[in-house]
């Protein structure tokens, strides 16, 4: 089956969606390409997948560069695949702020998972403010509808604004490594606010015990340690290159899902995700309308007598009626 081109119509997308749900990985890959492309084809993919989602546990894995996120993802999904699960990985790479390009090298770092049959897809952030591509929720929906479970979203890292993984995942795993830095700075970066589970990776290196102690201290002193649906985040020690601790991590992820289901928190988180996705698309549409208006002669705010804020308000009134 040939992948439909933009504007090809919903029937071609529906055929791809049916093939994807039947296990056709090429069809799944083509649907993901349409999601990344955006526009009407992406909307058609969303409509085709909407009635078939909700079965996948979406796990976000994030952390500082070099902490071993990809190695952990590789080991975890390989373990799950060997146990008979159908995991998929959506690996989000940073985009160049100048060219928009990305390395997209996750298949190299996850060769073991690929050999085990894990579906792996790389996606560029395309400069999205939170470190996650605007298309990520749509891509997760495609993988969910295709029957993959869990869907693991590996993000570019954690920073002051790079905590949007919580808007894409049911369970968020934050990875740290020995020498991860001052606990207060990590707290400022939002680690405690996004983490459902912590992993101290490279546990065979000096300083691993200190990193765990710092995390325990942060959690003991923080009120977010008992945020709804999570309880106190657990801490797992791993050496992902050797596979040590990966079984314990898999058990912690499964245990967190059970906890979410017991109190109805899973439904609340997914509703929050849907609202966040609507907001992201709304912001994107409004930004496009603003760009179009600014480029249209007669609407340019070039009056020397008004401030940029007043010009923006005048333009907003014209856009919003």
Order of helices and strands: HHHEHEHHEHEEHHEHEHHH
Q: Can you tell me the CATH architecture of the largest domain?
A: 3-Layer(aba) Sandwich
DSSP strand tally: 7
Please identify the structural class as seen in this structure: alpha/beta
Radius of gyration: 21 Å
Number of domains in the coordinates?
Answer: 3
Give a quick account of the main beta sheet: strands, pairing sense, barrel closure. 7 strands, parallel
Q: What is the count of DSSP helices, taking H or I runs of 4+ residues?
A: 13
Could you list the spans in which at least 5 consecutive residues all have pLDDT below 50?
Answer: 1-8, 96-103, 127-131
Please give the CATH class of the largest domain.
Alpha Beta
Percent strand equals 5-15%
Instruction: For the largest sheet, list the strands in their spatial order.
Output: 3-2-4-1-5-6-7
The percent range for helix content is 40-55%
The end-to-end span amounts to 45 Å
In the CATH scheme, what's the topology name of the largest domain? Rossmann fold
Mean of residue pLDDT?
A: 81
